[in-house]
Amino acid sequence: MRLTIKNPQDFWCGILFVALGALAVYLARDYEMGSALQMGPGYFPTWLGGILIGFGVLIGGLAFRIESESSEGLGLDTWAFRPWLVLTAALALFAVMMEANLGFVPSLLVLITGCALAHKDVHWRETILLAVCVTAGAVAIFSYGLDMPYPLFWWSK
Asked: How many structural domains compose the chain?
């Protein structure tokens, strides 16, 4: 019997979570920790990093299985690069549009539509309906409910 990786995506996700958690704990090491009642600046990142490490170990550990033959390896052919690239580009475009003061509504519409393009089977009617509904909800929550100072459109500064 040998230990093989059943799900490479979960394995690499676990590795990423452990690395990010360790980085958070390492970067917060010089901050005062405090206590649960009087939290210092290092309390939240240290605990969050520890929780992230725990999730990483759990997710990464669940990716393994014990069997005699391995049918799936850690090859790059099992990775889906389109979602990584498209989601990163959509988020970067959202940030650029918000920084250029083009407005909260157009930026969100582009973000949601761009995120839908990460899937290979895009249904445009559902995507547009989702973009409109989520944007309306975000405007209601952030602009009107929380009074965040986001201009809704480029002309409404």
From this structure: 2
